[in-house]
Amino acid sequence: MGLLKNILGHVYAQVLRKARRPHSRICSLKKITIVSTWNERCGIADYSAFLANELRKKSIRLYITPISRNLKMNPMYFFILGYKAGKCCDVVHIQFEYGLWPDLKMGKYLFQTFGAFMFYIGLLWSNSHVVTTFHEVIKEPEIWRGGKVGWYYKKLFDRVICDISDFIIVHAFASKDGIEHEELLSKMCRNRSKIKVIPHGTYEKPLILDKELCKAKLRLRKRILTVFGFVHEQKGHDLLVDIIPLLEKDIHILIAGGPRLPEHEAYYEALKKKAQQLDCIERISFLGYVPQAELPIVLNATDLAVLPYRNATESGVLHHLIAYGIPTITSNVSVFKKKHDQYGCIDLFEAGNKEDLLKRIVRLLRDKRKQSILQRGCRKMWNDTKWSSVATKHMEVYLEACAGCPDTIYDEKRQRTRIRWLKENTKEPAVEIGCATGFVTSFVGANVGIDLKPSRVRLAKIKHPTKEFLILYIYHLRRIPSKQS
């Protein structure tokens, strides 16, 4: 064990030393690679597909590097895959979640997601710009097999990801098991300025169909209450199954989702068994995974959606429901409470409380006025989180990674003193030479910013649309006649 820890520690020291070197190549953001599960039964695959479709509209060349936990674990294969992905593109964007990559077993030790570890090492040697989206941040050591060595490796792996990545994207800062998501990330990522919050995307153009026709396709004529998403214990499906006998007879439950990992299958089967014991199996339909092509039918047929999660950091399912304006009840975990407070688009019940859940369902099904209020909130949230808006925010992150000059450098005391002096002593008209992403140009009130790096000028125009920015070599200013200068 001591030898393995020393080896892992030495690898990390080499990674950290190389990660601290500045990027040597200048890029103008023409080619991007998205690394993700692809064409699989996985919400992250769907997320990546929607993001890719919008990014292709931004006049860039987009490539996809598919990964899967079913691939045979070959460390050199993933190292070379990462190296090639970094060499051929300006930015590599990894859609990361633990468990989506193959594991490495060495005797009694199990190194989970080791394929991703080698992929990042390959990216490091390619000297590429790297952006990582964390779809889940894991705290609990018990879910990591491999004992103390496995947990030590997991902490080291988190540090490697954060040190190699130019930016870390999360969908929200939410509480999980009493620990702030932000606090967990801060322990993993020592440079707080790397963390960017970009919300999960929402359908740009939902396919609205006739509700009764959709119910007919599902062979149902009753009011439909649906739970969407992959099934496992933390999603709280059992809470809803327990209260089915207490609901009115004309209510039918749809469980639209199946187990994603083998360890979740036991819980899925336990739900079916419980429904049989309560003599209400005929009032529940277990649909399993619903393909994207069939999802609009289920969404349009739904009268009320329930997300009874015991804990969560973000839910892409909620964004589907928002796009279709479906009245939704969720538990009052942090991520949902923030959406409720900001938009008023969902109704909340006390997490884990079956009695409160039952009361909320009965009340919302009867209260048409409340349903209308929730639907207005859905429209507000949709406007802020539609995929075109989310893709634009991703583009800003990519450009900032290529620019290599984040605005956070001006938070330093010496820099603040300098730009305040400039603001007090700048007289119009003024031009900033070497404007980077335009922060100083805007702050001091200059008219024009000039920089040699296209990615910096492009980002400056997005961040400060009222200012003028030019890609210009400084010696070209000599060609301007003195009367016009």
SSE topology:
Elements: H1 2-19, E1 31-36, H2 43-55, E2 61-66, H3 75-88, E3 91-96, E4 104-106, E5 109-111, H4 114-126, E6 129-134, H5 147-164, E7 167-170, E8 175-176, E9 179-180, H6 181-188, E10 195-197, H7 211-217, E11 223-228, H8 237-243, E12 251-256, H9 265-277, E13 284-286, H10 295-301, E14 304-307, H11 316-323, E15 328-331, H12 334-343, E16 347-349, H13 354-366, H14 368-385, H15 387-403, H16 413-425, E17 431-433, H17 439-444, E18 448-451, H18 454-463, E19 468-471
Parallel strand pairs: 1-2, 1-3, 3-6, 6-7, 7-10, 11-12, 11-14, 12-13, 14-15, 15-16, 17-18, 18-19
Antiparallel strand pairs: 4-5, 8-9
SSE-based structural type: alpha/beta
Question: Main sheet: which strands, in order across?
Answer: 2-1-3-6-7-10
Runs in which pLDDT lies below 50 for 5 or more consecutive residues are: 22-26, 174-180
Q: Under the CATH scheme, which architecture of the largest domain would be assigned?
A: 3-Layer(aba) Sandwich
Number of strands: 19
Total number of helical segments?
18
Q: How much helicity do the residues have?
A: 40-55%
CATH first level of the largest domain: Alpha Beta
Q: Whole-Å distance between the termini? A: 70 Å
Average pLDDT across residues?
81
Rg, nearest Å: 25 Å
> And the CATH topology of the largest domain?
Rossmann fold
Major sheet, described briefly? Answer: 6 strands, parallel
Net shape:
globular
The total number of structural domains is 3
CATH superfamily of the largest domain: Glycogen Phosphorylase B
Quaternary structure type = single chain
